[in-house]
Amino acid sequence: MLVAAAVCPCPPLLVPEVAAGAAPELDGARAACVDALGVLAAARPDRLVVVGPAEVSGSLAYPQGAPGSFRGFGVDLDVRLGPAVPVAAGAPRLAPSLAVAAWLLDRTGWHAAPVAGLGVAQDLPSRRCAGIGAELAGAEGRVALLVMGDGSACRTVKAPGYLDERAAGFDAEVARALAAADTAALGALDADLAGELGACGRVPWQVLAGAAEGAGLSGALLYEDAPYGVGYLVAAWA
């Protein structure tokens, strides 16, 4: 059963070494992410599953200790998913969103429960997302989710996707749904619109919606802003 969830943005810029001189601009987001992970630890889960967008076909599981790095962003920084454990040779390398999650877990000293990762393709249909979420929540024991994903990438003319007048409304609806733990609203997000707006969080959020259906969780929105024209949201459900 799902006992808690944290929703965090996944830009590599969240890592101060990657952001370099611009690092202070996301201090508020980092602090909110730390608070959200604190909610997960307080829920005393038996396991934590990190879900984030990845360039995969369907979905890809990552074991605890799976390696990742930010070398592709010009930074000599390696991470591992959760507390270090021996990992079989050939374990998949973390997608960037999961590498950011690994950095967050290390930053907070996560040892509350074993960790696993799940990378999900950004074109998964909503029904499949709900099914994945239900499978995660249906596992034995107390399950917590760390859900990584960004809102629209079209909030300003300098945004990666330029300005789209629909972006602010899309992000506002996501923020409202996260604050209210509204699984129906998250599940109803328009996949085509999310794709047009570059909202890579749509699939992970809909996985969360499927996992939290009927769980009776309450939500709190901890951060909402659009630095660099991209919607970043942090929330905690417990």
Task: Explain what you see.
- By secondary structure, this protein is α/β, with parallel strands linked by helices.
- It has one domain (2-237): LigB-like (Protocatechuate 4,5-dioxygenase, Chain B, 3-Layer(aba) Sandwich).
- It has helices at residues 16-19, 27-42, 96-107, 126-137, 167-180, 183-187, 191-197, 202-212; strands at residues 2-8, 47-53, 59-62, 67-69, 78-80, 115-120, 143-148, 219-225, 232-237.
- The strands form two sheets. A seven-stranded mixed β-sheet has the order 3-6-2-7-1-9-8, with helices on both faces. A two-stranded antiparallel sheet has the order 4-5.
- The radius of gyration is 16 Å and the shape is globular.
- The mean pLDDT is 96.
Strand and helix map with partners:
Blueprint: E1 2-8, H1 16-19, H2 27-42, E2 47-53, E3 59-62, E4 67-69, E5 78-80, H3 96-107, E6 115-120, H4 126-137, E7 143-148, H5 167-180, H6 183-187, H7 191-197, H8 202-212, E8 219-225, E9 232-237
Parallel strand pairs: 1-7, 2-6, 2-7
Antiparallel strand pairs: 1-9, 3-6, 4-5, 8-9
Helix pairs in contact: 4-8
**CATH hierarchy class name:** Alpha Beta
Question: Can you give the mean pLDDT?
Answer: 96
The secondary-structure element order is EHHEEEEHEHEHHHHEE
* Strand order in space, largest sheet: 3-6-2-7-1-9-8
N-to-C CA distance: 12 Å
